[in-house]
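Run log, item B.
One chain of 206 residues. Sequence copied directly from the ordering sheet:
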Amino acid sequence: MGSSGFWVVGALDDEDVARLAPAAVPAIEAAAARESSVRAWARWTEDVSLAGGAVPVRRPDGGGTEQALRLLDMLEDSALDALADDAALHVLAWWDRFDARVAPFAAAIRKDNPVAALFHGLGPERAGTLPGWAGDAVLSAAAVNHRLPGVEAVLALAGEERTRALARIGDWPGDEDPRQLLDGPLRVWREAASAGLGVFSSRIRL
């Protein structure tokens, strides 16, 4: 039995964000700033450029390509997983605190990572404008309102851009609905902004 990668995006009130942020935000920022993360992102950008828009996912024998495995490895390094291992932050406990006014978005892929599927569909330029790192982010209500237009520019795709992104998400291993991966997080962001709530986005492996 293999583990599954889970990605959950939900809404928190600012009081809970204030409790969560001191542990989570520095860890997320440190993960993004690590030299290994910066190098991996640059390599993904180069791989995408050489491949003409998106890295190849499967070899002729059905196995994963080196480029796809590099993308997966980069996004597997979750700051919140590390905090959970140290008992500094229990992500599952925070999922129980999501505000009931906004239904959370949740995705899971066995032996893989839903954030990798989404990033493969978006490409590095778009994915790089999303808050946080590797699917992990903690934002207050004010920050959600401030960042929402940028998130909409990344996820609210239309026409050929949406068709292309959905096709690339569908090419990634796993059976997650590409439309849900693109539309689900955006729904949470929009509903949280309307309700005056913050957002907690987290990716862990169970």
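Observations after the first pass:
- The longest helix spans residues 14-33.
- Residues 4-205 form one domain.
Flagged for discussion on Thursday.
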